[in-house]
């Protein structure tokens, strides 16, 4: 475990580990920075972060991208060895997740208070804004933590919310915020509008890596992201309270304070989204920004979003898989592991022991009722306990030989789904599917399964020995 005090410390560690590229040549905000971040995602699963410090049109802008964009960087964010396997990162993430809750460390001052702008706020001057995809409907802030509290339960820290939502810059001090009913901030906004009041919010940009991961995690409504970040980093999470009473990460680079306007909706979008398509336009709430604070020479952190895989797929990998795993395991202790890495968990693979015939389908149904499953999981594949859900070769083998579509496919029509899924019809509604790729057991006696092949004795020892020899040979 490791508690990074801010984004700058994490970037230094990435550089020491040869996981950060600094680009000192002048670049154009468009299309250079998005193109470079997109190109990094094509290099492979060990791609580094990238840092620009000479951007045409800006005198002193600094932009970091792809900070979480590889398994190496993800492992380092968790304070693990950068070569930790995907499976090891999953089980370590799960182990820490179960230590919830951690504690907060409240302090009075933070570096982001160095510069304050509370008159004539102009986001176009204060932030190095640029578009990621050619069809984006404007500038978007896409990796910030938005913090809000419930006006009906203001002093309850556990229902304070830290979430990552896309924010469209719509004017000098005006943002659009994309929220969907499954997000906790939607509950806060509903309570504020029932009272006829604006909802105070703070938007923290350029954060240390753990709170960004927690902001992307579908926690329960009464689980506070800061307390989960504390157990993930093995130390109390340091925050500073704003004058409005919202807790802000101590290490943020920028903090925007404002209000979600009561009852106001405006067209937002389009934006190139995580499914690999533009989102279209919808009516969403509006935020007015009253105050911006930032560090001297602030670092702007952005995530490239395009056709998968990109940085956002790493951001949403373990943060999606672990909560689903723990929620379904609380009902079915037979569950072994969950892989929800693909396109924000639209497809989920679950490995489980089988209690009796038909059991796998119940496991699949339980996935659909998890916090994440309600709005995202569309296809659930259930495999046996000896199939590694993170190894797609094994999953496809199970799909190939254990699935008989006549009895192993369950579809449920007209369930809620994130409207960013372009397959929805109408928007926000989809048919969901469970594929039972487990071996039938009594009383399900379908198929003609004899004894399953295992591996020769001594294979594990040979694998360890040969891996060392191959590594030595390639030095």
Task: Please characterize this protein's 3D structure.
- The protein is an alpha+beta fold.
- 27% of the residues lie in helices and 26% in strands.
- It is built from 14 helices and 21 strands.
- It has helices at 7-16, 32-43, 71-77, 86-97, 123-126, 184-194, 209-215, 225-233, 311-315, 318-329, 359-368, 392-402, 405-408, 459-473; strands at residues 20-23, 49-52, 62-65, 104-107, 115-117, 139-141, 145-148, 161-163, 167-171, 174-177, 199-205, 237-241, 247-249, 254-268, 282-294, 299-302, 335-342, 347-352, 379-384, 409-416, 429-437.
- Strands 5, 6, 7, 8, 9, 10, 11, 14 and 15 form a 9-stranded antiparallel β-sheet that branches.
- Strand 17 (335-342) and strand 18 (347-352) form a beta hairpin.
- Helix 4 crosses helix 10 (318-329) and helix 7 (209-215) crosses helix 8.
- The longest helix has 15 residues, at 459-473.
- It is globular and about 75 Å long.
- The model has no long low-confidence stretch (mean pLDDT 95).
Largest beta-sheet characterization: 9 strands, antiparallel
Determine the structural class based on helices, strands and strand pairing: alpha+beta
Assembly level: single chain
Distance between the termini: 29 Å
What is the average of the pLDDT values?
Answer: 95
Number of helices: 14
Low-confidence stretches: none
Shape, per Cα inertia axes: globular
User: Using only CA atoms, what is the Rg?
Assistant: 23 Å
Portion in beta strands: 25-35%
Percent of residues in helices: 25-40%
Number of strands: 21
């Amino acid at each position: 475990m490791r508690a990074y005090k801010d984004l700058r410390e994490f970037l230094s560690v990435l550089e020491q580990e040869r996981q950060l590229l600094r680009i000192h040549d002048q670049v154009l905000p468009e299309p250079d920075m998005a193109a470079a971040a997109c190109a990094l995602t094509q290099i492979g699963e060990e791609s580094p972060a990238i840092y620009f410090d000479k951007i045409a049109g800006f005198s002193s802008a600094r932009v970091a991208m792809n900070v979480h964009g590889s398994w190496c960087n993800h492992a380092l964010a968790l304070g693990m060895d950068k070569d930790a396997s995907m499976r090891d990162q999953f089980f370590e993430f799960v182990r820490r997740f179960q230590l919830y809750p951690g504690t907060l460390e409240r302090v009075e001052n933070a570096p982001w208070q160095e510069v304050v702008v509370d008159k004539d706020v102009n986001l176009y001057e204060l932030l190095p804004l640029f578009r990621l995809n050619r069809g984006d409907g404007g500038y978007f802030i896409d990796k910030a933590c938005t913090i809000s509290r419930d006006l009906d339960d203001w002093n309850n820290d556990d229902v304070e919310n830290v979430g990552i939502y896309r924010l469209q810059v719509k004017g000098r001090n005006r943002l659009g915020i994309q929220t969907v009913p499954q997000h906790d901030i939607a509950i806060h906004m509903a309570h504020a509008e029932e009272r006829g009041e604006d909802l105070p919010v703070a938007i923290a940009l350029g954060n240390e890596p753990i709170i960004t991961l927690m902001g992307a995690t579908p926690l329960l409504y009464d689980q506070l992201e800061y307390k989960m970040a504390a157990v993930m980093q093995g130390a109390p999470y340091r925050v500073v309270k704003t004058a409005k009473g919202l807790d802000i990460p101590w290490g943020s680079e920028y903090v925007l304070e404002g209000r979600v306007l009561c009852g106001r909706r405006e067209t937002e979008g389009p934006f190139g989204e995580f499914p690999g398509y533009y989102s279209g336009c919808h009516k969403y709430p509006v935020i007015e920004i009253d105050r911006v604070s930032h560090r001297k020479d602030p670092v702007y952190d952005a995530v490239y979003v395009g056709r998968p895989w990109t940085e956002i797929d790493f951001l949403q990998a373990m943060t999606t898989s672990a909560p689903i795993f723990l929620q379904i395991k609380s009902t079915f202790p037979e569950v072994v592991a969950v892989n929800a890495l693909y396109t924000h968990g639209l497809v989920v693979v679950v490995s489980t022991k089988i209690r009796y015939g038909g059991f796998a389908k119940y496991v699949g149904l339980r996935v659909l009722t998890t916090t994440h499953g309600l709005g995202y999981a569309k296809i659930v594949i259930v495999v046996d306990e000896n199939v590694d859900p993170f190894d797609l070769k094994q999953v496809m083998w199970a799909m190939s030989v254990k699935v008989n579509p006549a009895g192993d496919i369950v579809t449920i029509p007209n369930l809620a789904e994130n409207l960013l899924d372009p397959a929805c019809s109408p928007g926000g509604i989809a048919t969901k599917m469970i594929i039972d790729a487990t071996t039938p057991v009594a009383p399900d006696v379908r198929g003609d399964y004899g004894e399953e092949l295992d591996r020769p004795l001594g294979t594990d020892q040979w694998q360890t020995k040969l891996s060392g020899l191959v590594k030595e040979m390639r030095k």
